[in-house]
Design goal:
Elements: E1 3-5, E2 12-14, E3 16-19, E4 25-26, E5 29-30, H1 32-44, E6 49-51, H2 61-68, H3 73-76, E7 78-83, H4 91-104, E8 110-118, H5 120-129, H6 131-140, E9 144-151, H7 155-162, E10 169-173, H8 184-193, E11 197-201, H9 215-221, H10 230-239, E12 246-249, H11 254-263, H12 274-290, H13 310-323, H14 326-335, H15 357-361, H16 368-379, H17 384-397
Parallel strand pairs: 3-6, 3-12, 6-7, 7-8, 8-9, 9-10, 10-11, 11-12
Antiparallel strand pairs: 1-2, 4-5
Helix pairs in contact: 7-8, 9-12, 13-14, 13-16, 14-17
Length: about 400
């Protein structure tokens, strides 16, 4: 495992961090044994930065981590969690939530505490409620060690927030498709120039850069002089930036943990050659021609008051264009939003009533209702009942239903 230092405190952090937003799930809940095994294995092999949040897995994530970091594992890592900024209504809320998080995580302090998912207007509201005083006092009394923020807004607001408080670190979305999105490359360099450690989330766009690689993209990867998997390419590209301290990976399979650990043994900054960087640029251009929604699968839009499975619908829609297999898309739409493998619970795009609540929650600022309308037109035609019958037949025979 390679390590990089946080400039302001000298902490030596593993370049691979374990992001806990996408842990293994079984029957709608965290698969506790599998997730415990994966997290402890990663820690045993050098990962020392574990990231969670108040809202992950509908509030189950922090208590789960608190239960598995016993036996000396808490002492081996730097634990990061976040203040859910969008639900804060008063200065008192901040202390109440932090104190509850300490109990849920079974710890006396949070090593890296973030104000979660900021945009400019949200920061202004929190500042008016006294968030800087809250951070100062929480650091002074030892409940948090380092203060930072995660960000999903414009570059202008990002710079303003960086300059508004003596942060130790920040967390931004960054990958080869998001160089100019949100904070982007400009924000990465700006934060580093101010001495902030930079934690990167979504290095693989929620897995979209690895789960379903279009043949046109794979052909480009195959031209590389050094052969790597799409996950290796995506992670190595981010780690190639010396300004990056830690890259979070939402690992939920043993093979992912193994592969990422191996990549993290050799991902020094500035080691990708010019030809390799040109290859990544070509892959970026190809993806931009193929992808539609821009969704990363973060699930911040949920729960939907109308029951729409927003990320599920978006994933199926994107996958059709990445794979070119429209029949498979219709089958999976019937199976997932159609309730065949959701215990009969429907999550159709057509259930959207255009209430707009998801627009306020989406870190990517997607026009979710408009995209859902397009998805409805594409997948909910007169043949949908035929596809539901096909899905019932397929998954009745599939003994691995829980893995879907």
């Amino acid at each position: 495992m390679l390590y990089r230092r946080i400039p302001k405190n000298g902490d030596k952090l593993s370049i691979l961090g374990f992001g806990c937003m996408r842990l293994s799930v079984k029957d709608g809940r965290i698969d506790r044994e599998e997730a415990k095994r994966q997290i402890r294995y990663a820690i045993d092999h050098g990962v020392n930065y574990i990231d969670t949040a108040w809202t992950y897995h509908l509030g189950e994530n922090e208590p789960f981590l608190g239960s598995i970091l016993s036996g000396g594992y808490r002492e081996k890592i730097k634990l990061a969690t976040k203040l859910p900024s969008w639900i804060i209504k008063s200065r008192e809320d901040m202390d109440s939530i932090l104190n509850a998080q300490l109990e849920r995580l079974r710890t006396g302090y949070i090593d890296y505490y973030l104000v979660h998912s900021l945009i400019g207007t949200l920061w202004d509201r929190l500042k008016s409620l006294g968030v800087t005083d809250f951070l100062d006092r929480a650091k002074a009394d030892g409940r948090i060690v380092n203060a930072g923020f995660s960000f999903h807004g414009s570059i202008e607001d990002f710079k303003r927030i960086v300059d508004a408080y003596p942060w130790t670190f920040c967390q931004i979305q960054y990958n080869f498709l998001d160089r100019k999105n949100q904070a982007g490359a400009e924000g990465l360099k700006y934060a580093a120039s101010k001495g902030l450690g930079v934690i990167v989330m979504e290095p693989l766009r929620g897995g979209k850069l690895t789960r379903l690689v279009p043949p046109e993209v794979q052909e480009i990867w195959n031209e590389a002089p050094v052969k790597r998997t799409p996950a290796e390419w995506g992670l190595r590209w981010v780690w190639n930036h010396p300004e990056v301290t830690v890259v979070l990976s939402g690992m939920n399979e043993e093979s992912q943990v193994e592969e990422n650990l191996k990549t993290a043994e050799e991902a020094y900054p500035n080691t990708l050659a010019g030809v390799e960087l040109q290859l990544v640029d070509r892959v970026e251009q190809k993806y931009r021609k193929l992808m539609n929604t821009g969704c990363t699968g973060c699930r911040y839009c949920l729960p939907c008051s109308s029951g729409v499975d927003i990320p599920g619908c978006f994933e199926i829609y994107d996958n059709v264009y990445l794979s070119g297999d429209e029949d498979e898309g219709k089958l999976m739409y019937a199976a997932k939003p159609g309730g065949i493998i959701r215990g009969g619970v429907l999550g159709y795009a057509s259930q959207c009533v255009q209430c707009g609540q998801c627009l306020e929650k989406c870190p990517q600022h997607l026009d979710i209702p408009a995209i859902l309308k397009t998805i409805t037109q594409k997948f909910e035609g007169p043949d949908i009942e035929t596809w539901k019958d096909a899905a019932r037949e397929k998954f009745r025979k599939d003994q691995r239903l829980e893995a879907i």
